[in-house]
Amino acid sequence: MDSITYLTTSWGDMTYVDSGGTGIPLLFLHGTGCDSEDWQSVIDILPSNQRCITLDFRGHGQSSIPTEHFTLVNLSDDVIHLVNSIGIQKLTLVGHSLGGMVAMEVARSSSNVAGLVLLEGWTSLSSAGIAFDGGRFYGTLSQTKITEIQNKSTETRSRFEQGIWSSFWTTVIDFDAYSYLEHASIPIYEVFGGMGRNETTETKLRIPPNPNIQIIWVPNAGHYLPHECPTEVAKVCVDFTAETL
Fold first, then answer.
1. Confidence (pLDDT) at 1
2. 18: Cβ–Cβ under 8 A, 6 or more apart, which residues?
């Protein structure tokens, strides 16, 4: 793994890793309770010359733990701060779950974003909770891997003072990207695990009709796509770059 760099912010140090390379970079944004290491199995499969950047959100991974209240929009601001600090003109954001939601907020605010790959990056949490049949969250992951994910998430959330985390999570609950997606002019892949899919799933996911949005289903997978099927996720990233940019 490439070396970690610390970027100073108003709330502390944000850690990121930049592999270097050519072409439009892929900037990976992790989900709640995860961190940049959760992308490694995907990055290992990508072409060796592909520039890949990962970061740890506030309080996640090796980034500083915030002592003041923050919002989902603040996470978006952190991403934009990183992009500007390292001088990236164009990039593709690859976001999982919360990371996908943050990616949409970044794209709403920044002209540097050339495209989005959203891995179960919800239009809104309300749609996520009702779109699929139950029992699909961890997909086909082993119990050992499930426990590892759960323990990391629990440990990460425990770093925050309760009031800080709960106020942040309120902004995640309130997030709604329907209007953004409706008018988005950049290419977007909406990628979902196929487990639990039923005849009403696509309607309940609230993805507006937009010729720039393509929905991709990964068979026999649940929510944790980077962990369950890194080969398929890497292929999606390669295909997205080849077909849309």
1. 56
2. 2, 5, 25, 51, 52, 53, 86
228 close to 221: Cβ distance less than 8 angstroms: yes
The number of CA neighbours under 13 Å toward the Cβ of 44 is 11
From residue 67, alpha-carbon distances to 49, 84, 98 in Å are 38, 24, 21
Distance in angstroms (rounded) separating the CA atoms of residues 61 and 156: 8
Phi, psi of 54 (to 5 degrees): -125, 155
| CA gap 180, 210 in Å, rounded | 11
**pTM score:** 0.97
Mean pLDDT of the chain: 96
Residue 129 dihedral angles phi and psi, to the nearest 5°: -75, -20
Residue bearing tokens 């849309």: 244
Name which of 132, 134, 102 is nearest 118 in CA terms.
102
Sheet strands side by side (includes 213-218)? 5-9, 12-18, 50-55, 22-29, 91-96, 113-119, 188-193, 213-218
Mean pLDDT across 28-57: 97
